[in-house]
Amino acid sequence: MSNDAPAVPAAATDGGLSKKGLSAGTIGLIGAVVIGISCIAPAYTFTAAVGPTASVVGAQIPAVILVGFLPMLLVAFGYRELNNRMPDAGTSFTWATRAFGPWIGWMAGWGLVVATILVLSNLAGVAVEFLFLLISQVTGNPGIADLAFILPVNIGVCLLFMLGATYISYRDMQTTQKLQYVLVTFQVAVLLIFSIAAIVQATAGNGFDFTPFSLDWFNPFAVSSFSAFAAGLSLSIFIFWGWDVTLTMNEETKDPEKTPGRAATVTVITIVSLYLLLAVAMIMFAGVGTGKLGLGNEDIQANVFFFLSDPVLGPLAFLVSLAVLTSSASSLQSTFVGPARTLLSMGHYGALPPSFAKVSPRFFTPGYATIASAIVASVFYAVMRVVSEDTLWDTILTLGMMICFYYGITAFACVWYFRNQWFDSIRNFFFTFLFPLVGGAILAVLFVTTLIDSMDPAYGSGSNIGGIGIVFILGMLIIVIGIVVMIWQYFVRPAFFRGETLSIDAPPSLRRGGKVTR
Question: CATH: 3.80.10.10, 3.10.180.10, 1.10.1040.20, 1.20.1740.10. Which one for 25-516?
Fold first, then answer.
């Protein structure tokens, strides 16, 4: 039988988990961590978020990073427990279905896919801008940078980036892994060099607005208001997003019960350490004021690294632009891993058309789902770019909402799924109950707070329709479309919603000898 066979496998019709034809055992711990860091894209995410974060929380950027890291770490523990029990490429979709049933599971999968498609379009747009910025720096011709803002050029080059990323993602995971080793190593090395140089320059008196290091920067209670704290926290969560890609590869990793969870934890801890170093270096060098190079200056907030690179690194400033270009381009490619495997899983279990269950017989990758993700992301970017020049900023904020949405569902799925094991041991109490519960609750509060605040026309870029902020409209539109599509799938693919292809699973402590005891 060909691996392109779109039918739901017989092994899945009993409501249990089953393999999907992916290439097993091809990714080790280091490879998974590298792909996880690539997907987060630290150079791109930090330059896009540090300025707006400074504008709402001032010098408390490190505090917000740490607090934003907390729910990510707590949720990562929940993800790890679920993966240990049920390693499946569908991750949030599969786990929420097994815990809560097909309706909530379907929406969790929808949230993951849509969040990723949002960031795919965003990454491609950033790659375009930094490509022309890099060329202008290398050639000494500032006018070249303006080409990125010519609409046909912007969209055309963006689609070329998307095409290249799709091609690499369609090929085997070994190709992705080898490429990411090079790109991630370069990116992290440049960020470390930039951080150290900024601190040295600042302490030597060459900073723009030298600000002596203070432990108060790590105090979240120094933020002026809860709304400002929530806005900063939403941005902080955005800069951590992407670590869960390590889990969507669980059917392709060595030791799938343990490696993905360990990779997720190592990835999150590595990233928070890098972000804290960058935040401290930038505050010490530039301060958080509204001066020419201050982090609070709205004119530089869209691309802080670019404006600080020359004062910090001098003739090596182009390395920063190259690092951000590398970051966005490599993340564009690795980010395809998550939605493609979630869509594959949804097709495999009959929650979406069977075409999504197709696996390339040559590369053992979810070829159809990868191409579908690329097409939707490309169309979304092109339409949004025509509608508004502030596409990147508004999609970042909308992405923050969707991250809270599906991460929160997954965290609560962990709590509920292991409900009969909470008090079996101290470890179970913390890792299957307390940690994911607190992480999920924080994300739920952030989701509701952001949803309410985003109704204000001034939220985000200021774009609005009928006096309602575009971020709120985008967020609600995504959820409503998801519900409509889910109901449609219920009528055309009822087997999944009846629990025939993927059913609610009995809590682990009710099992004896592989069977459920009653």
Answer: 1.20.1740.10
CA distances from 225 to 57, 86, 233, 401, 445 (A): 9, 41, 12, 20, 15
Cβ partners under 8 Å of residue 14, min gap 6: none
What is the residue-wise DSSP string for 46-99?
HHHHHHHHHHHHGGGHHHHHHHHHHHHHHHHHHHHHHHHH---TTTHHHHHHHH
Residue-wise pLDDT tens digits, 43-89: 888 887 888 788 878 888 998 888 888 888 888 889 888 988 888 88
Q: Exposed, middle or buried: residue 398 (CB in 10 Å: 0-12, 13-18, 19+)?
A: buried
Q: Measuring CA to CA, which residue among 109, 118, 160 is closest to residue 351?
A: 109
Residue 493 CA to its chain's centroid (Å): 29
- Please state, in angstroms and rounded to a whole number, the distance separating the CA atoms of residues 408 and 80: 15
What is the reported pLDDT for 145?
84
Helices and strands (H, E) in the chain, number of each type: 19, 4
Can you give the pLDDT at residue 148? 83
Sign of CA dihedral 17, 19, 23, 26: positive
Q: Is 293 helix (H, G, I), strand (E, B) or coil?
A: coil
- Provide the 10 A C-beta neighbour count for residue 515: 9
Question: What phi and psi, each to the nearest 5 degrees, are found at residue 445?
Answer: -65, -45
How many angstroms separate the CA atoms of 418 and 412, rounded?
A: 10
Query: By C-alpha distance, which of 173, 171, 98, 170 is closest to 351?
Result: 98
State pLDDT tens for residues 130-183.
Answer: 888 888 888 888 888 888 888 888 888 888 888 888 887 777 666 666 777 888
For the chain, the structural domain boundaries read: 25-516
Q: What is the pLDDT of residue 508?
A: 66
State pLDDT tens for residues 401-412. Answer: 888 899 999 999
Q: How far apart are the C-alpha atoms of 202 and 198, rounded to whole Å? A: 6
Share of the chain above pLDDT 70, in %: 88
Residue 38: pLDDT over 60: yes
Q: What are phi and psi of 66, to 5 degrees?
A: -65, -45
Percent helix, strand, coil in the chain, to 5, is 70, 0, 25
Model pTM? 0.81
Using DSSP bridges, classify how beta strands 511-512 and 468-469 pair: parallel, antiparallel or unpaired. Answer: unpaired
Alpha helices in 287-424 (DSSP H): 304-313, 318-335, 337-348, 367-387, 391-417
Q: State yes or no: pLDDT of 92 exceeds 80.
A: yes
Q: Specify whether the CB–CB gap between 421 and 507 falls below 8 A.
A: yes
With cut-offs at 50, 70 and 90, classify the pLDDT of residue 510.
low
Q: How many Cα atoms are found within 13 Å in the side-chain-facing hemisphere of 16? A: 9
